[in-house]
Amino acid sequence: MSLTFHSEAGLAKDSSLLPAPSAQLSLTEGVRPFPGLASLFSLWHRASFARGIHPDAHKDKLSDPIRHMPFPSKLVLPLAQHIGKPSLPLVTVGEEVMRGQPIASADGAMSVPIHAPADGVVEAITLMPTARGTWTESIVLRVYEASTQEVRWSNPQDVESLGPQQLIAAVQDCGMVGLGGATFPSHAKLNVPEQHPIHTLIVNGCECEPYLTCDYKLMRERPQDLIAGTRIAMRAVGAARAIIGVEDNKLDALEALRPHLPADGSITARAVATKYPQGAEKMLIKSLLGVDVPAGGLPMHLGIVVNNVGTLALLGRLMPAGQGLIERVVTLAGPGIKKPGDYWIPLGTTLRSVLEWAGEPSCTDREIILGGPMMGQAVTSLDVPVTKGTSGILVFDKRMLDPITRNSWACIHCGECVNACPMGLNPTQLGMLAAKREYDEMSDQFHLGDCFECGCCTYVCPSHIPLVQQFKAAKAFLRERKPL
Ligand code: SF4
Ligand code: SF4
């Protein structure tokens, strides 16, 4: 097994677990492509973007279905689980709540409500730790032992009868955010200004991060929900067509979708090359439509909106039922996990609860990553909860890490980082400027703002220079002073 991290905490350089950068097309490890038309199709059509990398996939447990994790005794629900203003509590300490009930409302247009993931009683509304390292006001819920999977609060609606603005309001009522990790409120993304008419909705089913399989499982197990959510999003933005992009190491997911695609061709599914970061918006647009989103521009400026498959599959399931987002599929993986797989986990479940239930007891010195190993977040506190943006919990054993590879060496000007950067940036130059804290020059002359922190440069650097960590620090410094 091999892996590199480049999380916020600077764990990226654990190249003891690092695959050879030259491991071309090794992402098919453990994948059983469907030997049908899609496989043949992919042989002559490998839609892709320039540069990028091929980390080992480590996508195990592919044949296992999604299962439910039991309710923990306590849930911690931060009011800020999304980009934008935190939600406003609707409940008070001591109040009983039922599964599905709204317990916090949206505070304005860039905010979403929060719903109770279980029957229980509000134990506290207080500051609690989050993955970002900060403490955030949170609703702490003591879960009743008798709480069941039944959602006891709902408001069923005829989605077909809703107009675009009503659809957008209903999306907000669901509390939906980008489940790929971005946590941007979904209703705000679908509420496109009139001056940018949308022709195409792209549905991102790439899941290019190693280890993660939650989107793959949803495509395979819930294709009807995904198509229903795709139709909702198309109507909300006014798009005439939708294209579901799936990496060609998940052709069985593509085959699972095909019978559910409408006969009129308005929704199609296409294989794209298996390559990291194929799931980045700009990369997927390039692969599927052959166009570049200009620097500083947004997909909507080209008439395109991109949504994650997990987001749309949940929308397709929740909106007709008039229910809120109370659980999500999370991939549990890594040597520190005894029960690896994909699970419906109630939002607010702490890492302590997850690891007590699914952790490997012999793994006592853990490295924990929320999300994927390339762009995820390292966490140290077990009191951090699963939130709307948590796609994976990866647990590694620190004893597997080689301390030598955590050292950095001088740049040898090999150019590997330049060859890997999907944005066509010059990470070498940016790295040298970062070392000298020349942040303004990084931004003004070398387009630091175009770096979306994919970590390809760090991954390939033979000198183990923590390039992406330097770029994050530079951007944080500049953000303090002015927007990039
Ligand atoms: S410079 Fe930024 S966008 Fe380019 S490879 Fe490095 S992290 Fe990715
Ligand atoms: S990959 Fe590392 S060593 Fe090579 S040019 Fe880039 S920063 Fe320098």
Short description:
The protein has three domains: 67-154 and 324-399, Ubiquitin-like (UB roll) (Roll); 159-321, NADH-ubiquinone oxidoreductase 51kDa subunit (Rossmann fold, 3-Layer(aba) Sandwich), CATH 3.40.50.11540; 408-484, Alpha-helical ferredoxin (Fumarate Reductase Iron-sulfur Protein, Chain B, domain 2, Orthogonal Bundle). The chain contains 14 helices and 17 strands.
Please tell me about this protein's structure.
This protein has 484 residues and is of the alpha/beta class. The chain folds into 3 domains: 67-154 and 324-399, Ubiquitin-like (UB roll) (Roll), CATH 3.10.20; 159-321, Rossmann fold (3-Layer(aba) Sandwich), CATH 3.40.50.11540; 408-484, Fumarate Reductase Iron-sulfur Protein, Chain B, domain 2, CATH 1.10.1060. Helix content is 26%, strand content 18%. It contains 14 helices and 17 strands. It has a 6-stranded mixed β-sheet with strand order 1-14-13-17-15-16, with helices on one face. It has a 4-stranded antiparallel β-sheet with strand order 2-8-7-4, with no helix packed on it. Strands 11-10-9-12 form a 4-stranded parallel β-sheet, sandwiched between helices. Strand 7 and strand 8 form a beta hairpin. The radius of gyration is 22 Å and the shape is globular.
